Amino acid sequence: RYFDSIYHQGNAKSDAGVYASKNNVWNYTDEVAYGFGYGLSYTDFDFELTFDPATDIVQTAHEMYATFHVKVTNNGNVPGKTSVQIYGQAPYTTYDKQHLVEKSAIQLLGFEKTRTLGTETSNKSQEIDVKVDLQNLASYDNTFDNGDGTKGTYILDEGTYYFSVGNGAHDALNNVLALQKKKVADGMDYDGEAALAKSWNYDYAGTGTVDYTTFGTSKNNQKVSNQISYIDWNNFGGQKITYLSRNDWKSTYPTDHRDLTAPADMIPLLNGKIADASDPTGKTYYTIKTNDDVSKIQWDSTKTSYKFYEMVLSDWDDYRWNDVLSQINLAEATVFASNAGPSFNELTAIEFIKLAGATDNAGNGIVFDLKATKDPKAPWSILEGDDSNWNGQVFGCAPLVASSFNPELMHELGNFVGNEALFVGLPIVWGPGLNTHRHAYNGRNGEYYSEDPVLSSICALEFAVAARDKGLIASPKHFVFNDQETNRQGVSPFMTEQRAREIELRAYQNAVEAVEYDGKGLIGLMTSFSKVGPVEVTNSWGMLTGILQNEWGFHGYAVTDISDDKDLYTGMVYAGCTGYDLRFGNPTSTDDFAQKIGSQADDITLSTDMFKGDATMQNTIKNSVKRTLWSFAQSNLMNRYSASTQKVWRMTSWRIMYYTAIGVTAVLTVAAAAMYVVVAVKSKKEDK
């Protein structure tokens, strides 16, 4: 809005949204105290930016990167570090306004941190290269016609793009404005430095004024299109709402909507009906098939003998996984797909041993008591005592980590927590928090990094990669739109698909795609209690399969939040979760599956053979089991396995007492029954 006010466009200088501005006209300096990314220091730093689009932008068919060269010099009197933040501005064009594509005037693209720069000549300067993914500057146009019956893709407009280094977003924007010949006389709060901004004129080689091909195919080589159109209230019948637009700040500024009534075509989705690519309107629950040809889906096979422990650190597409999975029976797999921790059921055929306490619900550390292990012979075991309640969550909160703008420090945190996980024998942590600070009063902002998707994604990625190097699978939460804590179970956030993809989802996308680490990013996450518009996140096929698995190439473990949507088991599995968080009780075998999961909203009677005639669900369950096992195969859990690992039944002292008590009780019961019969017979004889 500050940028638009300088250019006197879009009614930016109006009374809309005024909180502290004088004369009831919006003014940046009255409204904002500290802009995003701004930092204080005990010393002074100078920056020099070098960027040549001809050599520093590298483009392939579906990717585009830019590298910025920054020299930082400490010109103060004390040693210090500083962040090097790179920002970008995309042109806001006539096409964007016509197609309701919104754009920020400036946005973070990437950052690095200097070493400690001294005051002596030999150590007062450092040259840093910051490589950024220009996908983060692309815009999602959910109206774009792909010509194949689908709509929606990422676009790059033709025109002039600007880049800048600065002490936060506002400083970078002032530098861009300076390059555009704007000054304080034009309404700026201070003059920027034009030398710290660079421009790039992009001329799309294809047809039209927007590039819809470069980022129209994902890094996983999948065509991008709308997957969650139901997140937009205006895609349903009934009363429409107005979304905020830069094109006219005054007439589109948000107002309260207190009397909205869910339209008739939204009700089925609110009630848990399935919405997927084949039926986005969600008219029915998933209909279980009974007569599919399932002959090619192998279960309970004895043709191979690969065991789980042999798959340690295996690739996702390792051919042996098919052989491993074919040995499991459908009943066991159906139960396994219902439960994603903290305990995990045994899979006898492949020698996956039953696990207890395999997950921890934390983030910046491990809240896992040393006494939590049930194996007294484990090297990390400790007896009850003064030290047995120790846990490792001693780090600063997530916003503090993000405020460092230091990828190396974020990586070190993941490494440290990974070591803690090795110490206590923990393979999965349900964290860190990766929701977006949508507003200042979100109940758990202390667990979430920031309001910016690029900053948040780098924090989570560095943590997860470093933790995984130690065998700890980080599973950030809550995917996605956990915007509040009060009444968070079932709350329905509505927005455009552009907003969803460019803010909340982008934080996860960058961490999954992990360009910096050759695609080896997140392989775990926890879903949100909330809905995606009217659709439960746990049942959103478009979110969990269409976007997460297909577009981004996510292969890992995806657990629900606490027992969320247990009454929608079929929808949960079909959508792409790998099981429920059943910390308060999970099925221990095929016998108590139906009882532990409970009654279903679609009136289906749960059983372990419910999918025996449904090829889609059998393949989905097999994929779910594989995702969990593959994630474990990358973890420190494999330290417990070897070729000689086996489950051995042992008669322990407590079992002796337990069985003795059962025996004594049985004898006493029989004796009591016999005495009852004797007394009853004797009583009848006396009556005669």
Structure description:
There is one protein chain. This protein is α/β, with parallel strands linked by helices and 688 residues long. Helix content is 27%, strand content 14%. It contains 19 helices and 20 strands. It has helices at 2-6, 28-31, 53-56, 94-98, 169-179, 249-252, 267-270, 320-326, 330-336, 398-403, 407-424, 453-469, 497-502, 504-513, 541-551, 569-575, 593-597, 615-633, 653-687, and strands spanning 45-50, 57-59, 64-74, 83-89, 107-113, 125-133, 139-145, 151-157, 159-165, 197-202, 210-211, 359-360, 428-429, 473-474, 477-479, 524-527, 531-532, 535-536, 557-562, 579-581. Strands 1, 2, 3 and 6 form a 4-stranded antiparallel beta sheet that branches. Strand 2 and strand 3 (64-74) form a beta hairpin. Helix 9 (330-336) crosses helix 18, helix 11 (407-424) packs parallel to helix 12 (453-469) and helix 12 (453-469) packs parallel to helix 14. The longest helix has 35 residues, at 653-687. The chain is globular, with a radius of gyration of 29 Å. The termini are far apart. The relative contact order is 0.10. The model has no long low-confidence stretch (mean pLDDT 91).
